[in-house]
Amino acid sequence: QGQPVESGGGLVEAGGSLQLSCLASGSRFSVTTMGWYRQAPGKQREVVAAISAGRITYYANSVKGRFTISRDNGKNTIYLQMNSLNPEDTGVYYCNALKYENSWHPIGPWGQGTQVTVSS
To answer: Of 16, 36, 64, 114, which has fewest CB within 10 angstroms of its CB?
Structure first.
Protein backbone atom coordinates (compact mmCIF):
# COMPACT_ATOMS: atom_id res chain seq x y z
CA GLN A 1 0.00 0.00 0.00
CA GLY A 2 1.50 3.30 -1.08
CA GLN A 3 1.30 6.67 0.58
CA PRO A 4 -1.89 8.68 0.13
CA VAL A 5 -1.62 12.01 -1.67
CA GLU A 6 -3.48 14.90 -0.08
CA SER A 7 -4.25 18.15 -1.92
CA GLY A 8 -6.49 21.20 -1.83
CA GLY A 9 -5.12 23.08 1.15
CA GLY A 10 -4.33 26.76 1.14
CA LEU A 11 -4.77 30.11 2.83
CA VAL A 12 -8.33 31.26 3.37
CA GLU A 13 -10.04 33.95 5.39
CA ALA A 14 -12.28 33.07 8.32
CA GLY A 15 -15.72 32.12 7.07
CA GLY A 16 -14.35 30.76 3.82
CA SER A 17 -14.37 27.26 2.34
CA LEU A 18 -11.92 24.72 1.02
CA GLN A 19 -12.25 21.23 -0.38
CA LEU A 20 -9.50 18.72 0.33
CA SER A 21 -8.87 15.59 -1.72
CA CYS A 22 -6.96 12.44 -0.89
CA LEU A 23 -5.93 9.91 -3.52
CA ALA A 24 -5.31 6.58 -1.84
CA SER A 25 -3.77 3.41 -3.19
CA GLY A 26 -4.59 -0.24 -2.61
CA SER A 27 -7.10 -2.68 -3.99
CA ARG A 28 -9.14 -2.70 -0.79
CA PHE A 29 -9.98 1.01 -0.78
CA SER A 30 -13.69 0.46 -1.35
CA VAL A 31 -14.02 -1.74 1.77
CA THR A 32 -11.81 0.39 4.02
CA THR A 33 -12.87 3.07 6.48
CA MET A 34 -11.03 6.27 5.57
CA GLY A 35 -10.64 9.47 7.46
CA TRP A 36 -9.09 12.89 7.76
CA TYR A 37 -6.73 13.87 10.55
CA ARG A 38 -5.73 17.38 11.51
CA GLN A 39 -2.51 18.37 13.24
CA ALA A 40 -2.68 21.89 14.58
CA PRO A 41 0.53 23.69 15.55
CA GLY A 42 1.86 22.27 18.80
CA LYS A 43 -0.93 19.71 19.09
CA GLN A 44 -1.36 16.00 18.48
CA ARG A 45 -2.88 14.68 15.31
CA GLU A 46 -6.64 14.15 15.73
CA VAL A 47 -9.39 12.62 13.64
CA VAL A 48 -11.83 15.23 12.36
CA ALA A 49 -13.93 13.04 10.04
CA ALA A 50 -14.24 9.44 8.91
CA ILE A 51 -16.34 7.50 6.41
CA SER A 52 -16.93 3.77 6.37
CA ALA A 53 -17.23 1.50 3.39
CA GLY A 54 -21.00 1.79 3.81
CA ARG A 55 -20.70 5.60 3.89
CA ILE A 56 -21.50 5.94 7.57
CA THR A 57 -19.82 9.13 8.69
CA TYR A 58 -18.22 10.39 11.89
CA TYR A 59 -17.33 13.97 12.74
CA ALA A 60 -15.45 15.48 15.64
CA ASN A 61 -17.63 17.89 17.61
CA SER A 62 -15.40 20.78 16.58
CA VAL A 63 -16.27 20.37 12.89
CA LYS A 64 -19.79 18.92 13.02
CA GLY A 65 -22.17 20.87 10.81
CA ARG A 66 -19.32 22.60 8.95
CA PHE A 67 -17.31 19.77 7.35
CA THR A 68 -18.56 17.03 5.06
CA ILE A 69 -16.60 13.90 4.21
CA SER A 70 -17.34 11.89 1.09
CA ARG A 71 -15.73 9.18 -1.01
CA ASP A 72 -15.53 8.11 -4.65
CA ASN A 73 -14.55 4.45 -4.75
CA GLY A 74 -14.13 4.53 -8.52
CA LYS A 75 -11.33 7.08 -8.07
CA ASN A 76 -9.88 5.74 -4.78
CA THR A 77 -10.43 9.25 -3.43
CA ILE A 78 -11.95 10.81 -0.36
CA TYR A 79 -12.89 14.45 0.01
CA LEU A 80 -13.37 16.89 2.85
CA GLN A 81 -15.57 19.88 2.16
CA MET A 82 -14.81 22.49 4.80
CA ASN A 83 -17.16 25.44 5.23
CA SER A 84 -17.34 28.29 7.75
CA LEU A 85 -13.65 27.89 8.46
CA ASN A 86 -12.19 29.55 11.53
CA PRO A 87 -8.59 30.04 12.71
CA GLU A 88 -8.87 26.96 14.96
CA ASP A 89 -9.13 24.85 11.80
CA THR A 90 -5.56 25.77 10.88
CA GLY A 91 -3.23 22.79 10.60
CA VAL A 92 -1.88 20.10 8.36
CA TYR A 93 -4.57 17.72 7.15
CA TYR A 94 -3.76 14.08 6.48
CA CYS A 95 -5.86 11.17 5.30
CA ASN A 96 -5.44 7.56 6.29
CA ALA A 97 -7.23 4.28 6.55
CA LEU A 98 -8.73 3.87 10.02
CA LYS A 99 -10.07 1.32 12.43
CA TYR A 100 -12.08 1.97 15.57
CA GLU A 101 -11.17 0.13 18.77
CA ASN A 102 -12.27 2.33 21.68
CA SER A 103 -10.77 5.18 19.68
CA TRP A 104 -9.66 5.79 16.10
CA HIS A 105 -6.38 4.25 14.98
CA PRO A 106 -4.57 4.84 11.69
CA ILE A 107 -3.70 1.63 9.86
CA GLY A 108 -1.96 2.85 6.75
CA PRO A 109 1.06 4.89 5.76
CA TRP A 110 1.04 8.65 6.18
CA GLY A 111 1.28 11.04 3.26
CA GLN A 112 2.77 14.51 3.20
CA GLY A 113 -0.48 16.16 4.23
CA THR A 114 -1.87 19.46 2.99
CA GLN A 115 -1.58 22.73 4.89
CA VAL A 116 -4.72 24.69 5.72
CA THR A 117 -4.29 28.16 7.13
CA VAL A 118 -7.30 30.25 8.18
CA SER A 119 -6.69 33.92 8.81
CA SER A 120 -8.84 35.95 11.18
So the answer is: 64
